[in-house]
Design a protein that fits this description.
With 153 residues, the chain is mainly alpha-helical. The protein contains five helices and no strands. It folds into three domains: 50 residues, no CATH class; 37 residues; 43 residues.
């Protein structure tokens, strides 16, 4: 970069460095000359200077205690709900597993049922399981990459 004659593009790159005090004296001098002669870059410099001044003058305003109480109430509610869903899921898994065991024992292993019926039910069940796993896997993969996921919360 030639600091003797800066273009507007070069100046825009250096403006934040000037505001933050990160430029060499040669860079500062060249940029100040350019800003004095270019109204567009001078306007941008003034805008960023005001922005820096405003951000430096900002103070953190502490939240009243009632907001913190409400925040923790929401956190506890979320934890309770998640724990509830975990127990519901475990219960459903146990009940469905027992039902599946009884179904296999009483229907699929029962030689009084026609073989074609047992084979048809088995193939249907396997198809449903494969499709369910496929849909679940796809949903989990899309969820990781979904850029709009945080909007829905």
């Amino acid at each position: 970069m030639n600091y003797n004659k800066l273009t507007c593009e070069d100046a825009q790159v250096l403006i934040m460095g000037l505001i933050d005090g990160e430029l060499t004296s040669e860079q500062q001098e060249s940029l100040k000359k350019h800003i004095d002669s270019c109204s567009s870059c001078r306007e941008q410099y003034e805008l960023f200077s005001k922005l820096k001044e405003e951000t430096l003058n900002m103070k953190l305003k502490p939240l009243p205690e009632m907001y913190w109480d409400e925040y923790w109430t929401h956190v506890y509610n979320k934890i309770e709900r998640r724990a509830g869903w975990i127990f519901i899921s475990i219960g459903l898994i146990l009940i469905v597993s027992f039902g599946f065991y009884e179904f296999v024992k009483d229907f699929l292993m029962n030689s009084t049922q026609p073989l074609i019926l047992r084979a048809g039910v088995s193939v249907l069940g396997i198809g449903i399981i494969i499709t369910g796993i496929s849909v679940l896997r796809e949903k989990l993969m899309v969820r990781k990459k979904d850029k709009y996921r945080s909007i829905l919360r």
